[in-house]
Amino acid sequence: MRYIKFKKKVKGAIQLFRPELSCAAGISVIAGELMALGRFPSILNLLYGFTCGFFISSPALILNDYFDLEVDRINAPNRPLPSGIITPAEVIALTIFAAVLGLASSALISVYALIISIILLIIGFLYNWKLKETGLPGNLLVSFSVAATYILGGIAVLNPWNKIVITFSIMVFFIDLGEEISADAMDIDGDKIRNSKSIAIRMGRKFALNVAGILFFVVIIISLIPIYFHWLGISYLFMILIFDAVTFLSVLKLLRSKTSEEGLFYIKQIYRGGSLGLLIFVASQLFF
Question: 48 or 279: whose pLDDT is higher?
């Protein structure tokens, strides 16, 4: 019986980390290293970069469940916290554990990486605590945090202001902002419970989706910049064609979606397209 309970707790703890998102943050730091360096970085750089990205992003993801407990009791009662698998005290302990590992990893990179990591941890806490309800300002902070992972990668190889890194950071900023705004449009009922001032609540679902659609199309335009200036080669072209095609088709379907479930499916398609393209690009730089 104790083993089963322990197994459930471990599974619940892993679920709180949202490993797909934490891993995406770690891979984004590695991608930033590859873009800034233009070649294969050292194994230590790869290890420190991934660990830093993973564990600096994790605390905000874990705290999201802590501060969203009352909303999740209605919208997601099977989540680890509202279901009772994980206690609030254990959530705090996991948050501290992840933050310490993230700060330790960033300190091994450089003092600048440590400073940025501290800023990102503070933003993550403030967002979950108070700023989530602010709507667009909260969306902007989340998007900034996601885009900063590429800058962290540049810092790890001592070239944070590389033009390719900056371009990707801007592109990631806009795509995450589009995802945040469109996701808010799919969760109007839940956001009303927490008195959110999201664009969807203030201006309507259709208006929010149109804004998100414009942001996604801006991303497609920005993604072509490295091709136009010949900054990156065939591996990037292959990646970006996949991403742009998935994004374009998913946005068209997202704008015509009638239900939240349908809309969330197409938002996830955009995220998966970006993740797949990023993995292909990183793999091509590492192994070819």
Answer: 48
pTM to 2 decimal places: 0.88
CB atoms within 10 A of CB 216: 25
Task: Give the DSSP per-residue string, 249-265.
Answer: HHHHHHHT--SHHHHHH
pLDDT in tens, 223-269: 999 989 988 888 788 888 888 998 999 999 999 888 888 888 888 88
CA 268/CA 254 separation, integer angstroms: 10
pLDDT for the residue 176: 93
Which residue reads 């393209």 in tokens?
A: 277
Contact call for residues 243 and 274 (beta carbons, < 8 A): yes
Alpha-carbon Rg for the chain in angstroms: 19
The predicted-structure confidence for 170-183, as pLDDT tens digits, reads as follows: 999 999 999 999 99
One-letter identity of residue 101: L
Q: Match 């390719």 to its residue by tokens.
A: 164
Architecture of domain 1-160: Orthogonal Bundle (1.10)
Q: What is the dihedral of CA 251, 176, 217, 237, to 10 degrees?
A: -100
C-alpha pair distances (Å), 221 with each of 128, 145, 218, 228, 240: 32, 22, 5, 11, 11
Enumerate the domain spans of the chain: 1-160, 162-288
Phi-psi region of 124 (alpha: psi -120 to 50; beta: other; left: phi over 0): alpha
Query: Residues 106-116, buried b or exposed e (16+ Cβ, 10 A)?
Result: bebbbeebbeb
What token pair was written down for 278?
């990023």
Position 98: which residue type? Answer: A
> 166, 43 in Cβ contact below 8 A?
no
**155: three-class secondary structure by DSSP:** helix
Using the predicted structure, report yes or no on whether residue 281 has a pLDDT greater than 90: no
First-last CA distance in the chain: 50
